[in-house]
Structures are given as C-alpha cells and as structure tokens.
Amino acid sequence: MPCDFGRAIAAEANRLGYREHIADSGDLQTLLVEVVPEVALVNVDGPSGPDAIAMCRRYMGPTAKIAALTDVPCLLRAGQLVRAGASVVLARPTTFLQVIAAMEGRLNVDLPPMSLDRAIWEYLNQTLAETGSIAAAARRLRLDRTSFKRMLRKRPPVW
Fold first, then answer.
1. How many domains in the chain?
2. For residue 56, what is the enclosing H or E element?
3. Which of 16, 29, 77, 155 is least enclosed by beta carbons within 10 angstroms?
4. Can you say how many angstroms the Cα of residue 29 is from the centroid of all Cα atoms in its chain?
5. Is 111 among the domain residues?
6. 58 has pLDDT over 80
7. H or E stretch including 98?
C-alpha cells in the first residue's frame, strides 16, 4: 500500500496532466516491465530504497530521470543514492513541481548555509562510513563510544 505522501504526489502529478503509476517495492519490477516510465520518484527510506533505484535504472535505461525522496537528507546517503542511479535526491516534504524543477536543473542556488549542528552530524556519519565501525569512528574522533552512539541516535538537525 503506497504511503499518503506517495498518493499526494501522484494526485498532484495527475492534476498537472502527467500520467502516474504507483507501485510498492514488490510490484515495482512488474510495473517497470509493463510501463517503461520516463521519470521515477522513489521513496528511499525503506531498506530496499537503493535497490529500487538500481532496478529503475536497469529497466528504464541510462538516460531516465530518477528522483530519490528521503526523510533523512544526509550528504553521505545522497552520495550512495546517486551511485545507485538517482538523478536527484530530495528531502521530503516536497511537491511534484519541485521534483520536476530539480530534474530539469532549476534548483534554488541561494540555499542557507549549513548549521554547525548539521555539519557535525554530517561529519559523524561520514566518519562512520569511512571507518565501518562505531568503535573505530569514535577512536578517530577521540570520543567515547557511548557518546558517539548517542550523537548518532539523534535526528539530523535542520539545515
């Protein structure tokens, strides 16, 4: 069953004259075989998010536009999604018009600077990805392991 956000985006796309199809992760391959879309919007917060993007890229071809929508906008995660095949990575909530503008390259370049708390959170996650373990990342950052875990458990600060 698609989420409320997915239904809202689909309804907005339909109102704007786009043909929309909604699929869960289990139905995605069937949909991609039956209807080869030009644009795909993929919710990547589930465990199969990067796999769904890779599947879309495989069935839709190298020139297809794939937007990854996430609740947790992290630079490290965005890099992983782009390597999996996403054209753009956007944080929810967003509108269908914002997704289309991002795919066309019409992004707002006047983004506010990243807050200090956000920069710290990004650096913690980057260090964890580089080292591969909490203990090694905590050692590299000269933090106690429990303090490092506690910092990682917090929700990402806003920009």
1. 2
2. helix 49-60
3. 155
4. 19
5. no
6. yes
7. helix 96-103
